[in-house]
Amino acid sequence: MDSHRALVFPIRWDAPSLDWLLVEFRLLVNESIRIALKADIRSRVRLARAAYSDLSARHAVYKQYIPSAFEVALGVLKAHRRRLVRKKRSSVPYVRKLMLKAENQSYRLDRETGRLRIPIQGTEGVQVHLPLSGWHRSFLSDSSWTLGSLTVVPGRIILVVRKEMPKTYEPAGAIALDTNEDSLDGVVASEEDTVPTVIPFGSVRRIQQTHFRRRRRLATKKSHDRRVMRRLLNREDAERGIAFVRGCIESQNDSSSSPRIGRRQSSSRNSRSMVPAAAPDG
Predict the structure, then answer these.
(1) Which one, of 84, 95, 88, lies nearest residue 33 by Cα?
(2) What is the C-alpha separation between 56 and 69, in angstroms, rounded?
(3) Quick check: 77 and 33 in contact, CB under 8 A?
(4) In angstroms, what CA-CA distances link 101 with 16, 30, 67, 158, 229?
(5) C-alpha–C-alpha distance, residues 36 and 32, integer Å
(6) In 3D, which of 75, 60, 62, 63 has the Cα closest to residue 29?
């Protein structure tokens, strides 16, 4: 799967030959539309067989522009036929805007300086300098982004770059976790096996109950002095966090030698989550 980006360069040129090329390319597209519509042609190969010789003899342009004109014409006709299938009104398509579309074999671009050479006919060509910004250079300086098609319209040049994206990560299994007040229940599921396990928390419930009673007593005793009450409650929260971590560590040390395997019924205060398991090495 490829990722595409369109780099737009606002540019003005004073080249009559390039203006003539845009007019000729539009004429090629419109004539290709008439030929494909009359013969009910839907593929570029059939259109090339039917129209390439005639158009190549009558239009003195760079010959690689003719297949590009076929591609634009078939794209316009596809939208026209889709409207007819949906019972919508659609007239015979006609391209009015001046344009030129060239594949990456047709033009030459210096990715460092932005100098672009567009062939006109034979060995004749036009050179323009694209205004490169930092965003443009971030793509052009990266060799993993390859050049695609080039579209020229009055006042703008659009360059498409593409890059092959890495394959989507496919997990080897899934881990389901059920957090309770007394334990952490989980199951690891893969294609080969499903392994349930239980990690007890031990004294976590007692720590939370003690913390709740102490907070309630401090809030009642210092209700007349909110500054002192807030300071004491913050200190109690910090001590509760340290005690909670110690309790978890002690529980893990106690259960690491022989963890309980099996299912436990979830309590009312639990939360479930699914996270992908990492693929095994090798």
Answers:
(1) 95
(2) 12
(3) yes
(4) 18, 14, 10, 9, 74
(5) 6
(6) 75
Tens-level pLDDT at each residue, the chain (282 residues): 788 999 999 999 888 999 999 999 999 999 999 999 999 999 999 999 999 999 999 999 999 999 999 999 999 999 999 999 998 988 889 999 999 999 999 999 999 999 999 999 888 999 999 999 999 999 999 989 999 999 999 999 999 999 988 888 888 888 888 877 677 788 888 888 888 878 776 666 777 677 777 777 777 776 777 777 677 767 766 766 655 555 555 555 555 544 444 444 444 444 444 444 444 444
Question: Whole-structure pTM over 0.90, yes or no?
Answer: no
Residues making up the chain, counted from first to last: 282
How many other CB atoms are found less than 10 A from the CB of residue 9?
A: 18
CA dihedral 11, 15, 20, 25 (to 10 degrees): -40
Q: How far apart are CA 141 and CA 130, in angstroms?
A: 14
